[in-house]
Amino acid sequence: MTLPAFLVVVGLVAYPLGYAFWLSLQDIKVGGQGQFVGFANYTRILFDRDSRIYGLFWNSVKVTALYTGGALAGKFIIGMISALILNAQIRARHFWRTLLFVPWAIPAVVSAFTWRWMYNDVNGVINTLLTNLGLVERPILFLADPKLALWSVLIAAIWQGAPFWTMTFLAGLQAIPRELYEAAAIDGATPFQQYFRITLPLLTPVITVTVMLSAIWTSNAIQYV
Q: Which UniProt keywords apply (predicted)?
């Protein structure tokens, strides 16, 4: 029973990774024959400051780290606050839960094109609204300005991914026994003390798994780029 699964893993994962690594050890020109150069390509990328690709590589690493870290921080804050609100006894709780999970249900490609249209400097809804309100004199180049592009993409990624964090945090909150909060309230614990002494410690396993999964998905996401 395990042999077919093993062959699938080898064929779809191990072989492509091994072949890609083998190609990375060669100097290949388009339409030409590859020449084995060992780890020269890695040395040039990582250590050769005079190489153009050195700057491109480390700039990509920096942008990826900022994008991933910013997205994780934003999703964590929004997801935690949303989960705490939805876990409380608020009016129309089921309606707000459904509404909040809509961004997660939308395909990432559709979401990316929607945000691209919203950011458009000619007919985008954001620039149109800001111009009509008199808040800006000229359209903002959200995706063309290097200072704004990363933040614009971050907002779109957080909007699309935060519901997943809310969903996992909410499931974790509902698994915490209410008796713990009741006992803490009797002992005089404030809501902040209950959060840091009960909620956060018991949610740590859920937070760890969510951060790991989201970090992998976010760092590999290309839909918004």
A: Cell membrane, Membrane, Transmembrane, Transmembrane helix, Transport
